[in-house]
Amino acid sequence: MAELTPLDRVQPCLLDRLTDEDPGNRQESRSQRVVSLRRFREGVLRDLRWLLASHPGVDEEELERHPELKTSVINYGIRDLAGQMLEKADAGALERLVSEAILRFEPRIIPRSLKVSYLGSTAGRSQGNPLRLDFEIKGDLWAEPLPETFLARTEIDLETGECNLRI
Q1: pTM value?
Q2: Spatial separation of the C-alpha atoms in residues 50 and 42, rounded to whole Å
Q3: Which of 39, 53, 54, 30 has the alpha carbon at shortest distance from 141?
Q4: Residue 143 CB: number of other CB atoms within 10 A?
Q5: Per-residue pLDDT tens digits for 106-151
Q6: Which percentage of the chain shows pLDDT scores above 70?
Q7: Which structural domains are found in the chain, ordered by start?
Q8: Is 145 within 8 Å of 68 (Cβ atoms)?
Q9: How far apart are the C-alpha atoms of 80 and 162, rounded to whole Å?
Q10: How far from 19 is each of 12, 14, 95, 104, CA to CA, in Å?
Q11: What is the pLDDT of residues 59-118, one digit of tens each?
């Protein structure tokens, strides 16, 4: 592997640092402790996919009784949107739902830079899945010495709960 310049390497997220891809090797090389910006971005995409496809383990009533649960991992994900009336979907509420989950559980995106835009649903369209919500997620990824711009198109399938992200 070619040596990464200081501008091209960042520290991987905690999950990636804790995942041992070579358990037989007792020592980590310097190149295993840093990753390229491309690999860093792929990790953010993977984790956003997991976040948006997950549903909290507590309901709204429980969150109101115990507000500290809002920032707990038990609240990881976004509430289940299956069965929502897509034609009456409140774009602002959907954007806030996705944005709040990202701000709460994805620290690699700089909070002030995050912009979530609801692009609509495919309900009533002749092509594609009729139960899919489309979003655009923009922001800056935390990286040293300069933030890296991030833009992803997100599709959440209301029937299966599957989340697809594309750059």
Answers
A1: 0.79
A2: 12
A3: 39
A4: 18
A5: 999 999 999 999 998 765 454 556 678 899 999 999 987 789 999 9
A6: 75
A7: 10-17+30-166 (3.10.450.40)
A8: no
A9: 11
A10: 11, 9, 32, 23
A11: 888 989 999 988 899 999 998 877 665 555 688 888 999 999 999 999 999 999 999 999
